[in-house]
């Protein structure tokens, strides 16, 4: 299996699984496992907490009962601290718990302890994660460096965004690995758009990972950039709101690249099979897991043709989402 494929397996493992198996009495030690990822291009940062088991036996033996593998809801306080030149900048930002009744997805299912924050991630900074167990006061910490040099908000102001021309990204000299898309098993297709609410403008996006959520389509028309099931997928991800106007910006084809901490984790975690295994590599003190960064490296940006903009605006799937057409008009 390629390392790039392993990245997605690890991310899926981190944020999706919970298991129930037979219980056997045997010596073990349960350890708090933290999986936190920050991304300079994302508007929301997620973190998951669950129990892991240190034992010479198979951890499956200890994971039958839900209460033994998953913590109670909102059992922790989670803080993110930003540092530059060894000095903390501003005040710690507190993560908020994610509703366990949310639909299962990339970052959680209903039995996970998941937290999120929408604080922006800045380049040339280091981040410290602090996880405090409410019942005991026990604290876990981890450090992560930032991979990448551009935020999503900044990318909207680049010249390419206004002129809507196809482009290819520049090399990332700080990344130690291949940037050739043909050497990666997975990619992300990110639909970017503006959202206008009153006098405010917001930068939004919807990610689709074909390998995780395949859509069946056949596109033989060279004039067609996107396809019907993709428009339908976007319609399920973007809420209908008559008070909101939107304008499609483009589509970025991206690779999910791991930062140095996550690279180290992946190198010794080749075949993840059980989220309750205690990871061999960890950078979380007083517990286990990984706190690291990823970067959505854009290797190609797709210019949206007038026909595509009109389909988004007037087509059956996104008609009620109020996207501007190719003439810049809303209906």
Overview of this protein structure:
- The chain has 331 residues and is α+β, with helices and mostly antiparallel strands.
- 17% of the residues lie in helices and 33% in strands.
- α1 (3-16) crosses α6 (260-267).
- It has one domain.
- The protein contains seven helices and 13 strands.
- The strands form two sheets. Strands 5-6-2-1-13-11-9-10 form an eight-stranded mixed sheet. Strands 4-3-7-8-12 form a five-stranded antiparallel sheet, with no helix packed on it.
- The chain starts with a helix and ends in a 17-residue tail after the last helix.
Which helices and strands appear, and what pairs or packs with what?
Elements: H1 3-16, E1 29-39, E2 45-54, H2 66-69, E3 76-84, E4 87-94, E5 96-97, E6 113-117, E7 126-133, E8 139-145, H3 152-156, H4 159-163, E9 188-197, E10 200-208, H5 228-237, E11 245-258, H6 260-267, E12 284-285, E13 288-302, H7 306-314
Parallel strand pairs: 1-13
Antiparallel strand pairs: 1-2, 2-6, 3-4, 3-7, 5-6, 7-8, 8-12, 9-10, 9-11, 11-13
Helix pairs in contact: 1-6
SS summary, helix count: 7
Mean pLDDT: 80
Radius of gyration: 21 Å
What class do helices, strands and sheet pairing give?
alpha+beta
What is the distance, rounded to the nearest whole angstrom, between the alpha carbons of the first and last residues? 49 Å
Major sheet summary line: 8 strands, mixed
Order of helices and strands: HEEHEEEEEEHHEEHEHEEH
* Contiguous uncertain segments of 5+ residues: 15-26, 63-67, 103-107
Strand content: 25-35%
Taken together, the total number of domains comes to 1
Rough shape?
globular
**If strands are numbered along the chain, what order do they take across the biggest sheet?**
5-6-2-1-13-11-9-10
Q: How much helix is in the residues?
A: 10-25%
Counted beta strands: 13
- Assembly state (oligomeric): single chain
């Amino acid at each position: 299996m390629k390392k790039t494929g392993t990245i997605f397996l690890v991310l899926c493992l981190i944020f999706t699984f919970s298991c129930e198996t037979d219980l056997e009495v045997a010596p073990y030690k349960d350890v708090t496992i933290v999986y936190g990822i920050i991304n300079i291009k994302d508007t929301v940062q997620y973190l998951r907490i669950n129990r892991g088991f240190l034992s010479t036996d198979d951890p499956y033996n200890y994971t039958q009962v839900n209460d033994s593998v998953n913590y109670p809801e909102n059992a922790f306080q989670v803080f993110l601290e930003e540092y530059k030149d060894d000095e903390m900048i501003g005040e710690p930002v507190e993560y908020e718990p994610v509703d366990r009744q949310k639909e299962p997805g990339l970052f959680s299912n209903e039995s996970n302890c998941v937290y999120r924050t929408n604080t922006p991630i800045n380049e040339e900074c280091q981040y410290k994660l602090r996880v405090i167990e409410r019942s005991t006061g026990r604290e876990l910490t981890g450090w992560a460096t930032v991979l990448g040099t551009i935020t999503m908000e900044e990318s909207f102001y680049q010249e390419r965004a206004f002129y809507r021309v196809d482009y290819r990204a520049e090399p990332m000299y700080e990344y130690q690995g291949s940037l050739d898309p043909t050497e990666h098993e997975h990619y992300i297709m990110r639909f970017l758009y503006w959202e206008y609410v009153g006098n405010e403008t917001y930068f939004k996006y919807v990610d689709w990972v074909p390998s995780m959520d395949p859509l069946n389509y056949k596109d033989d028309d060279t004039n067609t950039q996107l396809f019907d099931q993709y428009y339908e997928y976007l319609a399920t991800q973007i809420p209908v709101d008559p008070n909101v106007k939107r304008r499609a910006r483009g589509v970025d084809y991206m690779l999910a690249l791991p930062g140095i901490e996550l690279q180290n984790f992946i190198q010794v975690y080749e075949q993840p099979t059980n989220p309750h295994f205690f990871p061999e590599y960890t950078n979380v003190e007083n517990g286990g897991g990984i706190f690291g960064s990823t970067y959505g490296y854009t290797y190609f940006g797709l210019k949206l043709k007038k026909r595509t903009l009109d389909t988004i605006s007037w087509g059956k799937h996104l008609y009620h989402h109020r996207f501007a057409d190719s003439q810049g008009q809303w209906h």
